Fold each of these.
Amino acid sequence: MDAKIETRKLSFFYGRNQVLKSISMKIRPDQITAFIGPSGCGKSTFLRVLNRMNDVIPTARLEGEVLLDGANIYGPNVDVVEVRKKVGMVFQQPNPFPKTIFENVAFGPRVLGMAGKVSLDEVVERSLRSAALWDEVKDQLNKSGLALSGGQQQRLCIARALATEPEALLMDEPCSALDPQSTLKIEELMQQLKQKYTIVIVTHNMQQAARVSDWTGFLLLGELVEYGRTGEVFSRPQDKRTEDYITGRFG
Amino acid sequence: MSARTTQKLATACVWGAGAVTVAILLTIVIFVLVRGAGDISWSFLTTPPAGGTSGEGGISTVIVSTLYLIGLTVVILVPLGVGAAVYMAEYAKDNRVTRLIRYGTEVLAGVPSIVFGLFGFALFVTALHFRFSILSGALTLVCLLLPTLIRTSEEAIRAVPRSYREAALALGATKWQSIWRIIVPAALSGIVTGIILCIGRAIGETACLYVTLGGSAAMPDSLFSPARTLSLHVFTLATETKAFGAAMATAVILIIMIVLINALTNWLSQRFAARMVGGA
């Protein structure tokens, strides 16, 4: 079984506080892997470890390995920009820049110096099409990204992440700030995107995990309690704690 | 007292405070306009002051000197101030040293300008041999205004949402790229407000320029020329001559110039913001 992303004995600390406890797991390519768990279980931290977004936190410390295509992204001589180019991220709150729609999508290619090698117009159109936003905004690319609705803003953020041509996409509760209709759109979009990208999603919403994901991991207090095919985890959980959580006894 | 009465009373008080403020402002401006407007003519604007204690002549060289001085001050002040603000907000660790720097800028912002004037006189005019000159005046103004600009810019930069920084980093931007392309443009309107405040203060400043600029009414021809700004000219006319009308007329031009420079700065920043944001 080949893995796109693999963690080996991954532990993570904020100061003396251990938030991830020796997690070893494999994330398959071109599938959607969801992480569920109550608030504070470490699922967002886990996600942010996968593209080194926690690097900026001064007291953070990591043990173990995170392998992307078999290479440790925390190894020496690893270029963090290269990691983030390959592993894109979409956040909980839609956060377009206060720039035009075009400039939002073009930002990644510009800072990565891709602008000279590819046509920005093409990259922007392709990314917006992939994010199912092109038809709604193609006549107003010079409008501010902030002028869009919440759901459109989140798809703009997805387009912005896709513009750097990543291989994996991390989504940190991407629908928690959206209405049901926009949520549905994003979930449909994820089904299309998984054909080209490895998608890892963190969600508070168990129904969403059950609906969209192929694999589900259940995190509790920094521990990966259970990990398996989504159908199995939800119908025949192996661990008592998983069962308690998905049947709503806590969380 | 019933809640309704309290509400009415509070509204009346707040309304009254606003009305009094506006009334005072209007009185000053109208007083200056009425007393000064009569003495403004084309020749007043285009001839140099006669000098001495006569109070005759116009203010042409004074207008040029003011623009020259303000321009030079802004050119030195803005990169230094915004750069320091970026450092304080984005790079400096929160420790004893940075807290001391921050406390220092707060104290400096409250120091009377004549103290900066004496410092500028000792350092630029005397020790560095820049003499009484536009350069000495501008450098002294920069020292005077830096704390204000650093504080306002730092606050504007800190107010930029963290989510912008995270998004930029996640897209592979370096720290500098996210600062230069996202954070500073997003903080621009706040930074520009700080710059306008500084320009306003620079135009109105007399004390620290009195001891660094020299006060010559001749047309400046280099950075090392001594000069006289509009507010210094008002001061000179009011204290050394009997030309009160000319002093008022100069004050009118001073007010107009402040309004124009503010409008220009606002317009420039809005144009820049529009280019950044697109027609929102």
Note: Chain B touches chain A at residues 93, 161, 163-164, 166-174, 177, 181-182, 185-186, 276-280 (CB under 8 Å).
Amino acid sequence: MGSHSDGTPHQSGTVATTGTTEMERFPDPGLPPHRPRLTDVESKAAKRAERQVSLLFLISILGSVMFFVGYFGVRVEGPLYDVTNPTATDALRLQNLLLGLGIALAMFGIGIGVVHWARTLMPDHELVESRHAVRTEEQRADAQSILTTVYDESGIKRRPLLRNTLIGAAVVAPLPFIGLLKDLGPTNLDPLKETLWDEGVRLVRDPSGTPIKASDVTLGSTFHVVPENLNELSHHEGYLDEKAKAVVLLMRLDPESVNVSPDRADWNVDGIFAYSKVCTHVGCPVALYEQQTHHLLCPCHQSTFDLTNECEVIFGPAARPLPQLPITVDADGYLVARSDFHEPVGPTYSQRGTHVEEMQGEAN
Amino acid sequence: MVLALLLTGGLYAVATTTNEAKAQTETYTAQDIEEGQKLFLANCSTCHGMEGAGTPSGPSLVGVGAAAVDFQVGTGRMPMQANGPQAPQKAPQFDAEETQQLAAYVATFGAGPGVPEEEYLDVTQGNAANGAKVFLANCAMCHNAAGAGGALTRGKYAPELMGVEENHIYEAMVTGPQNMPVFNDANITPEEKRDVITYLKTLETNPSPGGFSLGSLGPVSEGLFVWTIGLAVIIGFTVWLTSRSA
């Protein structure tokens, strides 16, 4: 082994030079000498390793016992999450701890024990596994002759019509599978266009469902709002889908500090503005309202909207302002919607452009 | 600096019709008001003005009510420790009596929300389940579903709610300190506010049944734990598995 690093190419063996004979090749270094472990030579050490392995197995048994102590021994009695008396939650925590720790120790003890056993006590003699012999030239020639036979007998060179139609079929055959991909997406995107908001639908508080008087919305306050007709839906009738589209944030701003474009002049009630809570980036609920800076922050990707400028994006990845819900007051002084949103809420989707045109056509 | 101070307290200019009714419930003696005035002149008037009408360095306190004083001074946010995006909580500078005297004086500037009645702070009467609903709809987006707090824009943050006194939670909702919006009694009724407090106190007294909550901060702290401690354990075992026994 010592001669492989003396620097001359002819002796190093790592650089192949033409014309080298068998004798000049790098000699087989063989295996390093077998070094016996402490447990191989000393019976005391072997005995100790044996005890360690069985201790690990005992720990595993202890873990399994711990699981059953937690499962049968700990009683979770009384109401969970009681504000004055946490005994039941404490018991639940102890039970979860014993179950988890028990299973972990049961698995861990066996696993570590077996590995320790193999490392210290099982024989560690080296084994040599020879490579497969390199294939001979005859075998290569055989394989080549098979291919040549196929080429000749199929007549693919003599009959170009067959060849060309086969290539055509192979190109066209995968197309149906690409066509099937279309079915992975929704076939009807129209529900994304409409929400439950409509002319005269009252704005109600989430979750209590009570209507909101314009006088209740004081400067600096914010209301989390859903349409009144949402509460008529059950969970089987798409309650969550409709809620996800219709959620609105309502707040009163000082009318003098707000820029309102002329076509939205009658969309607010004395500085009470309603905006969709669904982020135009990927649809997270944008509800972090700072009442001094009038920033609306999306917690997912930090898109920030400026409420004083019709929710213009001032930071972050969102591409469009949040859609505004036109509102007014009804005869009883409650806030109601003037119409549905004038554009689809939430992030971009394939048919959004056509939907925007359709919705603005309906609004005018 | 001026901007920061304006941000901190500009909301005090907001007087609400719904909260006015409560302003009279707390009765202060003439001596309270007199003592409060002395404290105010010595400690607050530099920024808020001699009459509490505000200066370029601090907002007007007209109509903020006793509740705002009890919250801001009682949690140590006022007097403000330093100019910055947000006034942090610190050890209160005034004791309960002095805070009450200051509140009595500031309440004379104009009608505003008073300190909450004991009835609405009693968590044994509250409904934690309803409080959780109200909290998740109105508060959790900033303060985190477990009340652990969270970041806002440009250095501001929503503080952690664990360990906050019942009256301070109530007063924060009703006055909207700093950048927090106001949740007046028409929006969240006093009973619902009590439910919210009950929910928070339930989270506070009951341990996390899953074991270590790692601050309840979600993927940030949990990810950090797994990527450091978890990976270190895996690497340690890999080294042990492949090493040769002595």
Note: The radius of gyration of chain B is 22 Å.
